[in-house]
UniProtKB/TrEMBL annotation:
It comes from Phoenix dactylifera. The gene is LOC103705684. The keyword Nucleotide-binding does not apply. This is 2,4-dichlorophenol 6-monooxygenase isoform X2. InterPro entries: FAD-bd, FAD/NAD-bd_sf, RIFMO-like. The keyword ATP-binding does not apply.
Length: 621
């Protein structure tokens, strides 16, 4: 959402169009949507709305709706959405620019001296045809089963087939209205003797849902999940039969926890992003958020390369920076998925036992049985397991049922079930090496991330350590050079321009450093803006502003801190002194920091830093 604030009002549109937060803040565990509630977890806290650590709150918005908004933004930038029928007259490479080609699928690619030749299939008059494109860089954002990844021979590493599920997208305004009035929530974990499933309530007002149901092939076949069968499963989990249930789509999918062994291939010409580079369990929203971060990290680097500011080696820093984050988020999503499995385990339905039963039936012993008998045995065992969920068994008067319900309450109370927010990872992820000048120091976070050992969601602690996202603080413009009077420090980096930012305090040595940095940046053909952050109350003084301190350069802005009661100053927030300075990349991550007092030879040091970040030598610029 922080990134979307920079995309032509996209974050604001999402906030307007998403369901009200009270309709999706809870995860609800129940025997059916109209049956007993086993427990619920509220994932929103008052501080989530205070906008202290971020200028925007989390959101709940369906992917296909997001895609529509993104397409609209692209059209506003002059892109045109085209179907195969609209493209018959376009045969020259130059005419493909700013085209979004619907109905095309990548089927081949061949590296060339100047880039990549891509073959794409499309349908014409009922027949499949192929069209060739030549591009400098191919960004593969083609999903978890990426064709591009397979074509360049990049393997995935991690846990494969954690679980297989059937996804049932359906509409029912009757069900939506019922849940609105009785038990609004985002996720419903439903356990009863007839069926088990997880219902995602995308929009209760519109009555839009996606139901996830586990299935075990080959005994259970995807083809068995007809629209009629899916409706019956829905009715079992709802507890009554809404008359307006309309099944929109049914798809099988497998849950993996894998990261690509490489993100960059073919001499920096083919780059994997999003699900093509990493596949997570859908626990915590890490899939889409990590993918969007990938694109944000990559965009300014491609732009720097195409504008001859950086060398091709800057593309390698995308993999160096993003792959460790993907591995860390994979481990965290697996841990969160296992936390979700603690609930059925407490109810006597250990998922590992179900997988073991399935493996036995698939083994040499079970495989000698006819397929119909294998299916009957599997479903019979599962039915016996689900019988433990009957109200006759699962109640406070039954000693075993009472013990299981008590264990369930303990899991919810201790925060050991599936979690929604991970502030330390959502905002606090940090690149340890790459297009930055690292501080060095301890690597505790990296070790913890790689091992997957964590003690649940942790608070986000703002940091100005190189590789971190720039901390958020509200500031007030002290001159008329900014479009808004009060804004976030994150807004100092433009979303529509390739520009670095140097943050200093109004200290003489820092002004010297800023003038030298502006001069070196000009030699490197790098756009640089200087921000001078003044202490709170500076606007009341007569002499405020940098005036002629940075002459002859004019690309600077003076701002004043807006501190909340008992909150820290900007430099305290960054764990630095007012003699410090911070260089921020176009993707809002910190590239370099130091104290102006510690630099004796400013110009050579700034040249060294920009050379490291951009992968170029001054003589080559």
């Amino acid at each position: 959402m922080e990134l979307f604030r920079k995309v032509d009002g996209l974050a604001e549109d999402i906030q307007k169009l998403q369901p009200a937060v009270d309709l999706w803040r809870k995860f609800i565990y129940c025997t059916s949507l109209s049956g007993s509630i086993l427990g619920s977890v509220d994932h929103m806290q008052p501080q989530d709305f205070d906008k202290i650590v971020s200028p925007v709150s989390v959101a709940h918005f369906s992917q296909y709706k997001l895609v529509r908004l993104l397409l609209k933004r692209l059209e506003n930038l002059g892109f045109h959405t085209c179907t195969p029928d609209m493209l018959q007259s376009l045969n020259q490479d130059m005419l493909w620019e700013k085209k979004i080609l619907m109905g095309h699928e990548c089927i081949s690619l061949h590296p060339t001296d100047q880039g990549v030749m891509v073959g794409a299939s499309f349908q014409k008059e009922g027949k499949m045809e192929e069209r060739k494109f030549h591009c400098s860089i191919l960004v593969a954002s083609d999903g978890a089963r990426s064709t591009v990844r397979n074509l360049v021979g990049i393997n995935m590493k991690g846990e494969h087939d954690l679980q297989k599920l059937v996804s049932i997208h359906f509409m029912s305004k009757d069900l939506g209205q019922y849940l609105l009035q009785q038990r609004p929530g985002m996720l419903f974990f439903i356990f009863n003797p007839e069926a088990i499933g997880v219902l995602v309530a995308h929009d209760l007002n519109q009555g839009e849902f996606v139901l996830q149901v586990p299935y075990y092939p080959p005994q259970q076949k995807f083809e068995d999940f007809s629209s009629k069968v899916c409706k019956q499963i829905i009715f079992k989990l709802v507890g009554w039969e809404p008359v307006d249930v309309e099944v929109v789509d049914i798809k099988p999918w497998a849950m993996h926890a894998e990261v690509a062994e490489k993100f960059v291939s073919c001499n920096n010409r083919v780059i994997l992003v999003g699900d093509a580079a990493h596949r997570f369990p859908p626990a915590g929203g890490f899939g889409m958020n990590t993918g969007i971060q990938d694109a944000h990290n990559l965009a300014w680097k491609i732009s720097s390369l195409l504008n001859n500011i950086a060398s091709p080696s800057i593309i390698q820093t995308y993999e160096v920076e993003r792959r460790p984050i993907a591995i860390s988020n994979t481990n965290l999503s697996v841990q969160n998925f296992k936390a979700a499995m603690s609930v059925p385990t407490a109810l006597g339905l250990d998922p590992t036992m179900a997988n073991s039963v399935h493996q036995v039936i698939n083994s040499s012993i079970g495989s000698i049985l006819p397929s119909s008998m294998q299916k009957a045995v599997l479903e019979g065992i599962f039915s016996i397991g689900r019988s433990q969920l009957s109200e006759f068994f699962l109640n406070e008067d039954n000693p075993i049922g009472s013990m299981r319900l008590a264990r369930l309450r303990s899991i919810f109370h201790e925060g050991k079930s599936l979690q929604l927010q991970f502030p330390a990872e959502d905002l606090g992820f940090c690149y340890l090496e790459g297009a930055l000048v690292a501080d060095g120091g301890n690597r505790t976070l990296e070790t913890e991330a790689a091992s997957g050992h964590r003690s649940g969601p942790r608070d986000y602690i703002p940091s100005a350590k190189p590789g971190s996202r720039l901390p958020h603080m509200q500031v007030r413009a002290l001159n008329a050079s900014f479009s808004k009077d009060i804004f976030s420090t994150l807004d100092l980096i433009p979303g529509d321009k390739l520009e670095f930012l140097l943050i200093i305090a109004p200290v003489e040595k820092s002004y010297d450093l800023a003038r030298s940095t502006l001069k070196v940046a000009e030699e490197f053909k790098v756009s640089l803006k200087v921000c001078i952050i003044w202490p709170e109350g500076s606007s009341d003084k007569q002499e405020t502003g940098s005036g002629t301190k940075l002459d002859p350069w004019t690309n600077h802005i003076d701002v004043e801190e807006i501190k909340r009661s008992s909150s820290k100053s900007w430099w305290e927030l960054c764990h630095m002194t007012s003699k410090g300075f911070i260089l921020v990349r176009p993707d809002e991550h910190i590239a370099w920091r130091s104290d102006s007092d510690t630099l004796d030879n400013i110009v050579p040091e700034v040249e060294r830093v920009l050379s490291l970040i951009l992968g170029v030598e001054k003589s080559c610029v």
